[in-house]
Amino acid sequence: MSFDVGPAQGASVTHLSPRAAPASPVDEGAFAKVYDLAKVRRGAPEVPMAVWDEVDRAAAIAADLAAAGRTVRFTTSGEGGRVRAELVDSSGNVLRPISLGEVVAIGTTDPPTAA
């Protein structure tokens, strides 16, 4: 199994306005608490804005790679195989293997870890 990381479509949340902080509990006699029933029925957890910030950052990095004619391809070898990452050009030719630690560190100034 393999897949290429290309530009993220619809992953950005920059068009959303930040959520207000949850209101503190109110005294007796106040309005009832409002629930998003669709979210509760789906069991969808509340996604912190920091996670959406990371999604936006990853989308920007993928767009920069695509603009340079490159992408990151992830592959696994057989059953229970390890995940490998490769930097490939727009024709699918492997430019070089990438450690998973380096993939995680893309876009940062931190040195790669031994992942």
Give a short synopsis of this structure:
With 115 residues, the chain is of the alpha+beta class. The chain is 27% helix and 20% strand.
Number of strands: 4
Question: What's the end-to-end separation, in Å?
Answer: 21 Å
Structural class: alpha+beta
SS summary, helix count: 3
| Total count of domains | 1
Q: Which blocks of ≥5 consecutive residues have pLDDT under 50?
A: none
Mean pLDDT: 75
- Estimated radius of gyration: 20 Å
Describe this structure in words.
With 115 residues, the protein is α+β, with helices and mostly antiparallel strands. It has one domain (2-7, 30-105). 27% of the residues lie in helices and 20% in strands. It has three helices and four strands. It has helices spanning 37-42, 49-67, 100-105, and strands at residues 2-5, 70-76, 83-89, 94-98. Strands 1-2-3-4 form a four-stranded antiparallel β-sheet. A hairpin with a 6-residue loop joins strand 2 (70-76) and strand 3 (83-89). The longest helix has 19 residues, at 49-67. It starts with a strand and ends in a 10-residue tail after the last helix. The model has no long low-confidence stretch (mean pLDDT 75).
